[in-house]
Amino acid sequence: MKLQLALDMLSTEEALKLVKETAEHIDIIEIGTPLIKHEGVKLIRVMREKFPDKTILVDLKTMDVGEYESNFCFEAGADIVTVLGVADIDTIRGSIRSAKRYGGKVMVDLINVDDKMGRAKEILMEGDIYLGIHTGIDQQNRGESPLAHLKELSVLNSPLFVAGGINLDNIDSIIAEKPYTVIVGGAITGSENPNLVAKTIKSKMAQGGES
Fold first, then answer.
1. Mean pLDDT of 166-180
2. Helices 66-76 & 89-102, crossing angle to 10 degrees?
3. Rounded to the nearest 5°, which phi and psi values hold at 128?
4. Which CA distances in Å does 98 have to 31, 78, 126, 177?
5. 173-179: average pLDDT
6. What domain count does the chain have?
7. What is the pLDDT of residue 55?
8. For the chain, what is the HEC assignment?
């Protein structure tokens, strides 16, 4: 089980500082949507240079021209890019073509997909793809969480990424469903001691739950 650090701030300097502080405990660096929009593709190159041994995911949330957008991220050093599950299937196929060309991976984010199981099965017919179960911040503010959808999709033969308000209070229930990757943002980045929180979460993951 991998720990992905979601970086959604708007500063390259702050993002680099947080990765440096938590690098011992995280597996995947996520250049979040606000961050990639604000700082641009150059940040991918910086992260690749500074942290050559880490997996880098760029949360593009692509909705159109999947191949085009994926190409310039993979060229800059990304390992994984995201495309929205609500996008046209040809958009998703374009991202997949790009991933194959550069030896990368695509994670399809199922945020706001009504029939997550049906769409997931359709997408998995396209090949070796990661699926993202994602409760957005606006949805979290209404009290929603990704746990029910994680339980529903856990029966699929596909690596699942899960995100959405995951913290020390609810991490055990997430770990119990054995996702491939747990994505944590604010619980780490907003902490006074990001390294300790990342260490604690990673320890819980290694032990399968409570520790």
1. 95
2. 30
3. -80, 95
4. 19, 12, 13, 31
5. 96
6. 1
7. 98
8. CEEEEEECCCCHHHHHHHHHHHCCCCCEEEECHHHHHHHCCHHHHHHHHHCCCCEEEEEEEECCCHHHHHHHHHHHCCCEEEEECCCCHHHHHHHHHHHHHHCCEEEEECCCCCCHHHHHHHHHCCCCCEEEEECCHHHHCCCCCCHHHHHHHCCCCCCEEEECCCCCCCHHHHHCCCCCEEEECHHHHCCCCHHHHHHHHHHHHHHCCCC
Instruction: Provide the mean pLDDT of the chain.
Output: 95
First-to-final CA distance of the chain: 16
Mean pLDDT of 126-133: 95
The pLDDT value recorded for residue 210 is 60
pLDDT band at 144 (very low <50, low <70, confident <90, very high): confident
Q: Which residues contact 142 (CB under 8 A, 6 or more apart)?
A: none
Distance between alpha carbon 5 and the CA centroid of its chain, in Å? 8
Q: What integer is the mean pLDDT of 95-108?
A: 98
pLDDT for 209 equals 64
Domain that holds residue 140: 2-207
Give CA–CA dist 117/67, Å, rounded.
Answer: 25
Instruction: Say which amino acid occupies 43.
Output: L
| CATH number (domain holding residue 44) | 3.20.20.70
pTM as predicted: 0.95
